[in-house]
């Protein structure tokens, strides 16, 4: 395969049509031996391959979560201390410890109030919101499936066109090769006929010379 920046890529083989390796096992063995001696392919990606897409490049939290899932790390356990009401540990407790415990109790109370408000909102508006969300997800899934089917169909059509093109070109090459073999055979037959005629002419000349001497 030859590649140039100004010329299109040209393939010098027809994998859908060529079957020499199947016909000649010894040739296949030689090819495998030659490939084994070749250096390893370059690790760089072909310039026609698009660069990898980086997910969540602008969201460090989601990116960290994706890395955690890819590395098969367990999900961090929830911090339950923030939902507890611990009393001061020292006896007697200082004013600072009681103030900290009081702030924590107020925070817990506010958290419960916000949680009750959120549950009320979820009970009133959550079902419709989830229905809309599910509808959007189903529409997105259908679009993605359709895009996948279109891509698969396009891939099948490309492979079919490639196979048909290679079959057509392969038949033309086989016909030209057969014609070339026939022409070479005709030339060889003509050369052999010429040699035979030259030998016959030489024999006639010798007979003519012998008759002239008599």
UniProtKB/TrEMBL annotation:
Location within or outside the cell: Nucleus
Main location: nucleus
Name of the protein in question: Pre-mRNA-splicing factor SPF27
InterPro entries (alphabetical): SPF27
Keywords assigned by UniProt, alphabetized: Coiled coil, mRNA processing, mRNA splicing, Nucleus, Spliceosome
Native organism: Hypsizygus marmoreus (White beech mushroom)
Family to which this protein belongs: Belongs to the SPF27 family.
GO biological process: mRNA processing; RNA splicing
Coiled-coil residue windows: 134-214
Superkingdom per UniProt: Eukaryota
Signal peptide interval: none
GO cellular component assignments: catalytic step 2 spliceosome; precatalytic spliceosome; Prp19 complex
